[in-house]
Automatic annotation (TrEMBL):
Keywords: Disulfide bond. The keyword Hydrolase does not apply. Residues 11-249 form the ZP domain. It comes from the Eukaryota. One of its GO terms (biological process) is binding of sperm to zona pellucida. One of its GO terms (molecular function) is acrosin binding. This is ZP domain-containing protein. InterPro entries: ZP-C, ZP-C_dom, ZP_dom. PANTHER family: SI:CH211-14A17.6-RELATED, ZONA PELLUCIDA SPERM-BINDING PROTEIN 3. SMART domains: ZP. The keyword Disulfide bond applies. It comes from Cyclopterus lumpus (Lumpsucker).
Length: 300
């Protein structure tokens, strides 16, 4: 069996990364290493080198407080051996003071293929710009926008499939969680609050007015979500945006006539596998985290 004896050198630049992976005694084929979806820039019998921009290779950008991180995975797999391998790659920086999610660039719904770029941000009260504060009084609304840039894709609908609040920027097995969206698009928090999805302005955006809750009161709170971009002609009970309206029941955001999609919100909405748009299929998902934000009790 092959064993990896490895040395990794990582150089994090301002908008690029250079990674050198040196093999020790294994007989691994260094051409089979991948950084995200990128092939090595160069390789030899014992070394794989990647010199790439953060805009390439499916790097994930995570912004938490005063930190900005770019994360990816270095992987190895071979059809000729059962060996597979994955190693995290992380570049961390101080968050630029003038950085906000790029939510406002014009988005044109065109057909074709290309990479998707998801965004997730705290907004001001009318969703016209970034939030001026990350502190919210208990019971007030936390305006949240999720969006996907899709310049070279067919028009897509953006959904929030699952969202939980936690007091940590990374979810751990021991993390205490507060469910916000569950059952693949059901805003379960709206059962006990005035939280709601706002009418869409664009198919590629989703606005959520989340009523500030008691969970994590006075602590740093992070909202972890699964974002989904999906073919609007292929909706089902696992691709929806449902919220509960008092005395009316569950409502479907995109078409009130399809409120039947929400019928499973208090039971179990079974899902099918998400298929890649790059292969001509119907959707793509992205994990995202928002925060930290603070919920304060004005009466405390």
């Amino acid at each position: 069996a092959l064993e990896f004896l490895v040395y990794m050198k990582l150089d994090c630049g301002t908008d690029f990364v250079t990674l050198v992976w040196t093999e020790g005694r294994s007989r691994a084929d260094t051409s089979l290493f991948r950084l995200g979806n990128c092939f090595p820039t160069s390789f030899s019998a014992t070394e794989a080198v990647f010199s790439v921009d953060f805009d390439d290779c499916d790097f994930r950008r995570i912004v938490t407080g005063d930190r900005m991180m770019f994360t990816n995975d270095l992987t190895y797999s071979s059809d000729s051996t059962p060996l597979s391998f994955s190693h995290p790659v992380v570049c961390a920086y101080e968050r630029p003071e003038d950085w906000y999610p790029r939510l406002y660039a014009p988005i044109f719904n065109t057909y074709g293929l290309g990479d998707l770029e998801f965004h997730f941000g705290l907004m001001n009260a009318d969703f016209s710009g970034p939030a001026e504060s990350t502190s919210f009084p208990l019971g007030s609304f936390i305006p949240i926008m999720a969006s996907v840039a899709q310049e070279s894709h067919q028009p897509l609908l953006l959904f929030l499939q699952e969202c939980v609040a936690a007091t940590t920027p990374e979810l751990q097995p021991e993390s205490t969680l507060y469910p916000i969206i569950a059952n693949e698009g059901c805003l379960v928090d709206s059962l006990v609050s005035r939280s709601k999805f706002e009418p869409r302005q664009k198919s590629s955006e989703l606005h959520l007015s989340l009523q500030a809750f008691r969970f994590g009161l006075g602590e740093e709170v992070f909202i972890h979500c699964k974002l989904m971009a999906w073919d609007p002609n292929s909706l089902n009970n696992s691709k929806k945006a449902c919220h509960y309206v008092k005395e009316h029941g569950w409502e479907q955001l995109d078409n009130s006539a399809s409120r039947y999609l929400c019928a499973c919100c208090e039971s179990d909405c079974k899902s099918r596998r998400v298929r890649s748009l790059a292969s001509g299929k119907r959707g793509m998902a992205q994990q995202a985290v928002l925060g930290p934000l603070t919920i304060t009790d004005v009466n405390y």
